[in-house]
Amino acid sequence: EKRTVTQIEKNGYPDSVYINAAKIFQGIHIEKSKDRNVVQYGDNTESPMMTFKDEHSRRVSYELAFSALKYQDLLEEILLDSKAYPCYSIPDELTSLLVVMLYDLQDRKFQKRKIFAEEELVAEVQEIGHYLYSYRTKLAAALARCRIKYDALSIEYFVPETIRKQEQRASALPVCFWINTLKISLEDVVRDLEMKGFTKVESVSDFDHYTYAVDQHCHDVLVFPSSLREELLNLDLFADYKLLLQ
User: Angle formed by the axes of helices 95-107 and 55-70, to 10°?
Assistant: First the structure.
């Protein structure tokens, strides 16, 4: 059975993901000096209470928050240039939600977000989603002006060089999963993977797409090619906590 949240990434996320991503972003966003602090984020002294539907929701919430963090300067500039910010109907406490939803909106090429029948709607998310979508033309134009201003072919240009290099290195690393032996045995994992078309090889040097290896030192750890990361995270083995991402 497919988990609904795994199917919606380019159509948007459930409201709960935006709320959790905004709470995470509120705690990690870059505080700027008073003379530069044009965009106000409200108070973040309290630890946010977060409830995640499942492990996938947790992961995409953190990914969305950290994506917004990478592009914080660009997103703030887009909001200011488009005149979408300040908006006096949106309090400072919701600015983090505004920023993470703006990142997602531009990632969807300013297309409308899909609402799913079983989704539990959150009033603040709906309000800010409608507000940003009403500004979509001005926001897209502001993004285009930023790209022209900085001679950027894509928004990846706005990621600091050190972070770009770190991401390149990380994306090339093999993906490791622990086998949750409280739920499944190595033999059953191997059988399940073979049914899905995976082949066991002796070491990472033998990787060829749908292959995996058993760690030489930890026999309850499986190693996969980095290119399979997203596909692996959509397996039932992962969703059912039988494989745990290292």
Answer: 90
